[in-house]
Amino acid sequence: MILIACINIYFQIVIWHATKGEIVTVVDCHPDIIYSISWSRDGSTLATTCKDKKLRIIDPRGNKVLKVSYMIYMQCQSNGYFLVL
Questions:
Q1: Is the torsion defined by CA of 34, 13, 47, 31 positive or negative?
Q2: Domain map of the chain by residue range?
Q3: Could you write out the DSSP letters of every residue in the chain?
Q4: Nearest in space to 48 (alpha carbons), one of 2, 17, 1, 7
Q5: What averages of pLDDT result for each successive group of 10 residues across the chain (85 residues)?
Q6: Closest CA to 30 of 61, 63, 54
Q7: What are the Cα distances from residue 3, in Å, to 28, 31, 45?
Q8: What is the CATH class of 3-84?
Q9: How far apart are CA 22 and CA 40, in angstroms?
Q10: Of 19, 38, 46, 79, which is least packed with CB atoms within 10 Å of its CB?
């Protein structure tokens, strides 16, 4: 199954089934604007950064936050990526 993650205007992550075009789940754990989202290499988790300066590791299949930590530094690069150091 190929999944696609996107962000909506309600500060939620929407997981889509790519071939069927259907929503699989909606993850609602952010209180403010989501800046970035990235899949892990094996596709089991998502990492997100938010305006609240927290980095979240999320299990999208279980619809739960596995870990939350504060970001020390965040900068927008010219290529559009955020660095969390």
A1: positive
A2: 3-84
A3: --EEEEE-TTS-EEEEETTTTEEEEEE---SS-EEEEEE-TTSS-EEEEETTSEEEEEETTTTEEEEEEE-S-EEE-TTS-EEE-
A4: 7
A5: 89 94 93 91 91 91 90 61 54
A6: 54
A7: 17, 24, 12
A8: mainly beta
A9: 22
A10: 79
